[in-house]
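@channel anyone free to eyeball this complex?
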Amino acid sequence: DVKVTQSSRYLVKRTGEKVFLECVQDMDHENMFWYRQDPGLGLRLIYFSYDVKMKEKGDIPEGYSVSREKKERFSLILESASTNQTSMYLCASRPPSGSWYEQYFGPGTRLTVT
Amino acid sequence: GIQVEQSPPDLILQEGANSTLRCNFSDSVNNLQWFHQNPWGQLINLFYIPSGTKQNGRLSATTVATERYSLLYISSSQTTDSGVYFCAVLISSGSARQLTFGSGTQLTVLP
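replying in thread with the prediction:
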């Protein structure tokens, strides 16, 4: 079974802190994604990566950056956390384009910024 | 960009009841997926259904692409069906394809 893991289920940080959210997948997938989920808004794409060291902005990249140094790991970085970044963050990975609909999600990290 | 709208936003059912969830999309698509997010946050693929009808146990889905909607049917609901149901469509952006999600339907099945 494909496994996507995220470093923390719950995280509490203070305003202004630098925050790292880590995602690891074990199936050698090229494509990896970071979403945030807010009530009434569904999932919104922050950033995605289709290869090591490659990244593209999603719909809401402001206030975030990402890092993909190894194929299995995709990190989301909040350079200076703010209260409006309190949310549920979901990581996903996907096999090559031939099976685009096989998207696998991690369990999520619920981040609270105080 | 393409808009994906789901209804109803919230649904409360008694165990054993049937339900229909709807997903409307603003532009022609040739792909659509339904997901279930359980109460612990895990998101699971339910159906990839660009058109036609598919069934998996008590769940079935129908997409009428020409009329820009998809329906998810849950029959004889169980408490384990509780959670949020999302539909999503695929769009192409840059070098990869990405999913655009609706806002979800929060389903609560009472024992």
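from a first look: Residues 89 and 95 of chain B are 17 Å apart (CA to CA).
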